[in-house]
User: Fold these one by one.
Assistant:
Number 1:
Amino acid sequence: ESIKTVLRSPENRILIKRMLIKCADISNPCRPIEQCIEWAGRISEEYFAQTDEERRQGLPVVMPVFDRNTCSIPKSQLSFIDYFIIDMFDAWDAFADLPNLMEHLNNNIKYWKGLDARNLRVLRPPPE
């Protein structure tokens, strides 16, 4: 009933649509683990290439943390999750009840923390 009340207002509906678009844009940490890892790798490679190109052209480096020789992908993922994802998706979950999405998020946090605890800077642990 409270959701129906919120949705009656055109302003609230617009806000909710904007939130959905933003959440969709940054939702990688809420995907199943294999998709999350794949897209974390793609995004990291895009940022590495940008940093490489900025250095090659003698431009200021916008994201120095994305130096391919020193970057820890697990740390960058955890940082992104802490700064952008947790509060936004906790709020969205409270509004729309998204247990599967939140389960994926928690699994991904555990995965990245596990790699970070082993001081690994890569997407996947080495084969045993």
Note: The chain has one domain: 3-118.
Number 2:
Amino acid sequence: TQFISAELTEDQLLLLLESLERKIVSQQLNLVRTHSTLGSFQGEAGDMLFSQEEEQMLTIALVELSGVQLQEDGSVTPRDKPSEAVAALFVALYALNFLSG
């Protein structure tokens, strides 16, 4: 087994708190789960469905802090091998979703 050594930044923790307050953690978890495969983040993010633009912008900021660039056309571009950072984000979202559900 591989040990995940990446940690979330303070900015990510603040965004996660806001996500929890807005009750969009499960949507964010689904986005990260859908697009992360075998340590990479790929695919189309155009299927993000949030009720408000602020929620979508919050999610984009949260994911981009993990080293993944979400393009305006919905495409996903990894930067600087974000696998550990994305894995840490996935674990945090999973735990928050479990604890809040």
Note: Residues 32 and 64 are 11 Å apart (CA to CA).
Number 3:
Amino acid sequence: MVRAPRSLKGLTIVNGSIEIGEQSGDQPTSAHDEMDTDTEEEQTGVRGKTTMAHIWAMGADSEKILIEVDEFGVPCTKNAATFASFLGVIAKNGVYVPLNIPTWRHDDFTPYKLKCLKLLEEKFEFPHTENTVDWILKNLNKRWRDWKGSLKATYYIPKGKQRVLSKPPKSVLEEQWPGLVRQWYDPRKEELAQINKINARKQNNAHTCGRKSFARIRNEM
């Protein structure tokens, strides 16, 4: 028996359509209620904010951006960089990827994963295969965790929980801020954070190819 990837927990792919599996639950906020992407994105690089405004502006009559994938289901052409950048924008949008849900594998995340995939379907043409959907969700997961790490590095104050709670940043939905801060000050989470920090220092193979992924390089070679 072949098990589906953990990132697809609660989701099924039927005839090229991505659906919620056996779970039930209300759909999260609709797309037109999304956060203002011009104020939501905060990056500290010299390029400034990354909002992908031209992607958000694409309507139902716009031509979708074609995303080609390799034999592993990974985007491998120039458009892959645009696709990946938009995933990074979504990962920082609390309407699509909430900060107050503790882990990516939590059952409460299932309808939000579906919402992200439906948004991508409106703007990109990509294969709805298990490998590609798994890659998308893993990419979103990593970017969401990186975003949470960036927020903690900027706003966390040791033994200053109440002070941190009182000043939610504009880049975060205010109602999600308390849940995120509680995670930071949970003793179990703090212990896990220290373990993860030590493990991160052991990583020796850094990606040094800029926005060009290994999949694109392999495809070009």
Note: The chain has a mean pLDDT of 81.
Number 4:
Amino acid sequence: EESNALQQSLDELASLEKDMSVAERDSEVFRIKRTQHIYASRRDILNKIPTFWYIVLAENDDFAEYISVEDLKYLELIDNIYVHYNIADIENPSEDDLKHFKDFYITIDFSSKDGVIPDQKVTKHFKTIIEDGEEKIISEPVDIKWPHELDAINPALIKKNKGKQLSADDKKNYRLGMKSFFSWFAWTGEKPGKEFRNGEDLTRLIVDDLFLNATKYYVLALPNDEDSDDSNEDDSSEGEELDLSDDEV
């Protein structure tokens, strides 16, 4: 009897855990739906601020850890970064829709500057799956036109032009190109060691930090008026006469 009672209690607890998971899911879906249009409105405002996203990316030390040095000069070509969840567009989601509520898109707009890179809007699709009991992000590769100046390290061009016969320099450039932010657009999360490294970490940084806290990073990067005022204050020692007498103390 005690064993049956214990099992019944465990079953009831398991049922409550399922209810809690559903409640947490529904709360997250509600948050996404309520905030998505707010971020859309924010995007319209940010588009009016020159170099907004360049400043945000430059302000974030973690972002620099995931890209190559060669990428830094091209960050100012980014006009917009936007994260959109599929579930936000579904008025009455089904249970199947709710299973995929964490799927999302990241759209990045690039603007041409002296012909360095073509104007382009690149949208990359991401899915959240469970693998070995852990959440994992995977993605579909998407085409992007690289800056012309990086043609020498563009992995796709190297493979296309050289075929399977790669010289030592070709392989070096290929590996260098695979570390570039532009290779992240081809990342899938299903080819460890054979594609852009740390693709999931960079994706999470963009979605969970850079996009959500973009305004905060921008404001932090602005000149501090108080510091400017302090730097302009007169030194209290200015105007004092200096004792240049030879008298010993």
Note: The chain has a mean pLDDT of 87.
